[in-house]
Amino acid sequence: MPDKPYVVDQMISAKSIAARIEALARDIEAEYAGTEKLVVVGLLRGSFVFIADLVRELHLPVEVDFLEASSYGDGMETSREVRILKDLRSPIEGRDVLLVEDIVDTGFTLSHVIHLIESRKPRKLRTIALLDKPARREVQLSADWIGFEIPDEFVVGYGIDFAQRNRNLPFIGKVRFTDA
Ligand code: 5GP
Ligand code: MG
Ligand code: MG
C-alpha cells in the first residue's frame, strides 16, 4: 500500500496551526495556573511536532515525557488493539498531567492511555488532541482541548505519518491516491 502513488493536499496551513496553538496555550495556562510543574506527556510518534510547538508556547514550568502506544501498524485502519511500546520515565502519582495526542479517531487509543495514566493516580489529568475526527468515534470520549475538528479523511504531516512518511511536512494535508 505505501507503494501506491499519492499526493498530499494541504488541509490546515502551518500558520493556522501556529495561531491555534497560541490560543490553546492561553487556555491551558489558565487551567494550570499555580501548578508547581506540569507533566506534559506526548504520545509517540505522531504528537512529537505538536508537543514541541505547544510546550514552547506554554509559559508554565513543564516537564516533558513520552509514551508510545501503537494501534495502527503501517496501515490506514485501526487494529482496535492498543499496545504500550514505551512507557513513561517519571512517576506521575499526585502530579498534574497533560496528555498530548495527534488525532482522536475511533477513540480506542486515547481511552486506553487515559485508563493507564489514571491507574497511576495523577492529581489531575487533562487531554489535548491536535485533530479530532468525531465521525469515526467508537469509544465515546473527547479530548479536553482540540486543535481542529476534521472530516473523515486520512491526514498526514506535522508529525503524522503514512507508513512512516510525511511526518516532516509543516502543514496538515490529506492523502489522495493518484493511480487511475
Ligand atoms: P484511534 O485509536 O482514535 O482510532 O486512533 C488514534 C490514532 O490513529 C491516532 O493517534 C493516529 O496515530 C492514528 N490515526 C487516526 N486517524 C489518522 C489519520 O487520518 N492519519 C494518520 N496518519 N493516522 C491516523
Ligand atoms: Mg497517535
Ligand atoms: Mg501512525
Would you mind describing this structure in some detail?
The chain has helices at 14-31, 48-57, 108-118, and strands at 6-12, 38-44, 62-70, 83-86, 96-104, 124-132, 145-149, 155-156, 172-177. With 180 residues, it is an alpha/beta fold. The protein has one domain: Rossmann fold (3-Layer(aba) Sandwich). The strands form 2 sheets. A 6-stranded mixed sheet has the order 4-3-2-5-6-7, with helices on both faces. One magnesium ion is lined by residues 43, 46, 101-103, 109. It is an enzyme of class 2 (transferase). This is Hypoxanthine phosphoribosyltransferase.
* Integer count of domains: 1
Order of helical and strand elements: EHEHEEEHEEEE
CATH names the topology as Rossmann fold
> What structural class should be given to the helix and strand makeup?
alpha/beta
Average pLDDT metric:
93
Beta-strand residue percentage: 25-35%
CATH class (first level) name = Alpha Beta
Portion in helices: 10-25%
Largest β sheet strand count, sense and barrel closure: 6 strands, mixed
Ions, cofactors, ligands: which are bound?
guanosine-5'-monophosphate, magnesium ion
Give me the number of helical elements.
3
The strands making up the biggest β-sheet line up spatially as: 4-3-2-5-6-7
Radius of gyration: 16 Å
CATH architecture: 3-Layer(aba) Sandwich
Which descriptor suits the 3D outline?
globular
Compute the separation of the termini in Å: 15 Å
**Could you give the count of β-strands?**
9
Q: Could you list the spans in which at least 5 consecutive residues all have pLDDT below 50?
A: none
Subcellular location: Cytoplasm
EC number: 2.4.2.8
Keywords: Cytoplasm, Glycosyltransferase, Magnesium, Metal-binding, Nucleotide-binding, Purine salvage, Transferase
GO molecular function, one term: guanine phosphoribosyltransferase activity
